[in-house]
Design brief:
483 residues; mainly alpha; Growth Hormone, Chain: A; 3 domains
């Protein structure tokens, strides 16, 4: 049985037995969301200080960012299986414990390899927290009340990115970068205690089998692909070894494509890509996201390393990009209704690429108010692209495939963040291969190169038809074929 199926008719939900749980369960899950969202945004502002403390370079520090995100992407598909096999409450509490222990160890790191290893432990906990938390909500609330519960739960997804850069800058400037990890400790303890006290431990299906061979092929393939990309800009292994790593990654991923056709329930359901809206939303949209996701890594580095600003100033200048998502949310449905998915995605990709390239015009002498306005405008284009592509991905997905689609879509979204950071770091490495310093002009070159990537998604967006996703957007522009 799918872990996200609705409960049988007549079942008494947890909130019916105890009305207090109507607020407590979303609050428990919100703690996990807040921890993950904070951790995803708070680190970047502290990268230069951590690099100095661990005797490494800011560019190499991207490993600490991408390792966490890649671990998330690898283990998200396993979360539902673990929850079904061992019980949602147990896995949720264990994931909070793992994430909290990982956070403590990150704060104690004395070298980059130790930080990378502890970030992987954090990522493993994070990969279980939010999917299992969402599963707990679905099982605790009837569908008629689920939207309200989800709204409460996802508030941290909005709050986290807003306060993350500022909080990270404050802690790094006035305390120590280690506190950006230790701040998770009280949240983790509160979440564990509340989960063990109030969340019911249910086991839905102990007979389901997980596709471990497929999981290993996809997971190892993605890890090797990212490791190869990392070494293109800052090689730590010989050139022949880089080529071998990238070739092995491609062989594993191509091998999985062939393998997936031979098993009943592969780790990744590739048949979803036969649906045009899902294919364009996740693949073309993913390529576009890779180009836009490099900016949150490049910009704080440019402000601190290139311009010499403090972490608190850098965080204050960049946090407004998260506010843009709040501004886009109310008008996103109107944009889709007026213009359709095809036009919104195409123009947001073009505009986003232009904005990324425009960061090359920002220098140390640029007024701070202008940087704030420009970052906010970038956030608008980024939010419009992300929200539209995410909505398109599931707009025409049949209900029977929705669970697998959201799982695969979530993995691809995490990979777009990971590869965006990796490629941004690779480009910085390439423009400084001669051993030169990370001056503002080097960052400008990296931004210009990064701006090309969103445009690579245009061929996919142009294949959309006006009627694609219209049951979601309400857009009824007549297609050329029907005209």
């Amino acid at each position: 049985m799918d872990s996200t199926d609705t409960a049988p008719e007549g079942q008494v939900f947890a909130i019916d037995r105890d009305p207090r749980l109507r607020y407590i369960i979303p609050a428990v899950v919100a703690v996990a969301f807040l921890m993950e969202q904070l951790d995803s945004t708070i680190l970047v502002t502290a990268v230069p200080d951590i690099a100095r403390s661990l005797a490494t370079t800011p560019v190499r520090m991207n490993l600490a960012v991408t390792t966490y995100i890649l671990t998330l992407a690898m283990f998200i598909p396993v979360s539902g299986w673990f929850a079904d096999r061992f019980g949602a409450r147990r896995i949720f509490a264990l994931s909070l414990f793992t994430f909290t222990i990982g956070s403590i160890l990150c704060g104690l790191a004395t070298s980059l390899p130790m930080l990378v290893a502890t970030r992987a432990l954090q990522g493993f906990g994070g990969a279980m927290m939010t999917p299992v938390g969402r599963l707990i909500l679905i099982r605790s609330f009837p569908r008629s009340q689920l939207v309200t519960a989800m709204t409460y739960m996802t508030l941290p997804a909005v709050i986290g990115p807003v306060i993350g850069p500022v909080l990270g800058g404050f802690l790094t400037t006035y305390l120590s970068w280690r506190w950006i990890f230790w701040v998770n400790l009280p949240f983790g303890i509160i979440g564990m205690v509340m989960a063990l006290r109030y969340v019911e431990d249910t086991v839905r299906d102990t007979s389901s089998k997980f596709d471990f061979p497929g999981f290993i092929m996809v997971g190892v393939g993605c890890v090797l692909l990212q490791y190869g990309i990392e070494n293109v800009g800052r090689p730590t292994i010989p050139v022949w070894a880089i080529i071998a790593v990238l070739a092995a990654a491609c062989l594993l991923l191509v091998g999985f494509i062939r393998y997936a056709k031979t098993v009943e329930s592969p780790a990744v359901d590739l048949t979803l890509f036969k649906l045009r809206t899902f294919r364009v939303g996740t693949l073309a949209g993913g390529i576009c996201r890779v180009g836009l996701n490099g900016v949150p890594f490049l910009l704080p580095l440019m402000l601190q390393v290139g311009f010499g600003l403090s972490p608190i100033v850098s965080g204050t200048l960049t946090f407004v990009s998260a506010l843009s998502s709040l501004a886009v949310r109310p008008v996103s449905s109107t944009m889709l209704r007026l213009y359709g998915f095809d036009r919104v995605l195409t123009w947001s990709a073009v505009f986003g690429a232009a904005i990324v390239a425009g960061f090359a015009l920002i220098g140390p002498e640029t007024p701070h108010w202008f940087i704030i306005v420009y970052v906010f405008v970038f956030g608008l284009s980024r939010a419009a692209q992300f929200m539209t592509s995410n909505t398109l991905s599931y707009s025409d997905t049949p209900a029977a495939q929705l669970s697998r689609a959201t799982s695969l879509g979530g993995v691809l979204q995490q990979l777009s963040v990971s590869f965006g950071v990796s490629i941004a770091a690779m480009l910085l490495g390439l423009v400084t291969l001669d051993g030169s310093q990370l001056t503002p002009d080097k960052f400008h070159m990296a931004f210009l190169l990064m701006a090309v990537i969103p445009l690579l998604g245009l061929p996919g967006f142009l294949k959309l038809r006006p009627e694609d996703g219209r049951q979601v957007s309400g857009h009824y522009r007549q297609s050329k074929e029907a005209a």
